Amino acid sequence: MPRRSIWKGSFVDAFLLRMKKKRDLLLSRKIWSRRSSISPEFVDCSVLIYNGKTPVRCKITEGKVGHKFGEFASTRRRRPSRTNKGKGKKGKK
């Protein structure tokens, strides 16, 4: 997977850069910028990341630094795998 050039640095939305300076504003704040990188200033904050329908709560830890916000808010629904319950239509005549 191609990576961003080192000389460009990691992408962080301008809205998030302003929030980084005022750390108290970060606590349980909604974030729509899924493409922004998580920087060390966001550690120990709880944010709401928008997944396209509803915001998903995510606690930022040291292990998540360097990743994108969108990696931690899935946009797909999880479907449980179907199990065979009875014969269904195939067994009936």
TrEMBL record:
Q: Name one GO biological process term.
A: translation
Q: What Gene3D superfamilies does the database record attribute to this sequence? A: 30s Ribosomal Protein S19, Chain A
Keywords, alphabetical: Mitochondrion, Ribonucleoprotein, Ribosomal protein
Kindly name one Pfam family recorded for this protein. Ribosomal_S19
Which Gene Ontology terms cover its molecular function? RNA binding; structural constituent of ribosome
Q: Which PROSITE patterns match?
A: RIBOSOMAL_S19
Compositionally biased, Basic residues: which spans? 75-93
Question: By its UniProt entry, which SUPFAM superfamilies does this protein fall under?
Answer: Ribosomal protein S19
Question: Does Isomerase count among this protein's keywords?
Answer: no
Tell me which family the UniProt entry assigns to this protein.
Belongs to the universal ribosomal protein uS19 family.
State the protein's name. Answer: Ribosomal protein S19
Q: Which gene encodes it?
A: rps19a
